[in-house]
Specification:
Layout (H helix, E strand, L loop, with lengths): L6 E4 L6 H8 L2 H4 L10 H10 L4 H4 L2 E7 L5 E11 L4 E8 L8 H16 L4 E7 L3 H9 L3 E12 L2 E11 L2
Helix pairs in contact: 1-3
């Protein structure tokens, strides 16, 4: 379920610390998410140590995207704001710049969708995507998500405020 011929989604391992540290502290990526300050190695080490708890306890799940051929971690996918009662959750994805445009983000998102709908029995997934983030918007739409709304002046940017799209996919 979490594997195809090119990639697999797997639990975080202690060996992933340096990779996560580099990604989480890359200020170029902060504008795409909600990061406001750097993460310490200690905080990330504790995060990995707690990742054995299940999604019902943590209300989130982060999985490493790993190339099957090389065994190398190339990104992460997240399920966040997991709501078991309403059977919905947010989705996030980050692929290392070296692998962007390769189709692997699409493969990873499809694997995550299959896991969320068939195993977790979720009714819907959603994401918040900046209107200016064309690659992310295209990725989610390629994977069957539809734009369902726009949040005006939702995020602060260097130029003022920007709108964010609400993108959803129902389990049909």
């Amino acid at each position: 379920m979490l594997t195809n011929e090119k990639i697999r989604l797997r639990a975080l391992e202690p060996e992933d610390l340096d990779l996560l540290y580099a990604w989480e502290n890359d200020t170029n990526l902060w504008r795409m998410g909600n990061t406001l300050s750097p993460y310490s190695r200690y905080v990330l080490k504790e995060y990995i140590a707690q990742s054995h708890l299940n999604i019902y306890e943590l209300k989130q799940l982060r999985l490493m995207i790993e190339q099957r051929e090389s065994g190398k971690g190339i990104g992460v996918v997240d399920i966040y704001d997991f709501d078991s009662h309403n059977r919905k959750a947010g989705v996030g994805i980050m692929l290392d710049t070296e692998h962007q445009g390769s189709g692997l983000a699409t493969e990873a998102l499809y694997l995550l969708i299959d896991y969320a709908f068939s195993f977790l029995k979720l009714h819907q997934l959603y994401a918040y995507v900046s209107v200016s983030n064309e690659p992310s918007k295209a990725l989610f739409q390629r994977c069957g998500f539809s734009i369902s709304g726009k949040l005006t002046d939702w995020i602060s940017t260097e130029d003022g405020f920007a709108d964010v799209l609400v993108i959803q996919r129902m389990n049909e």
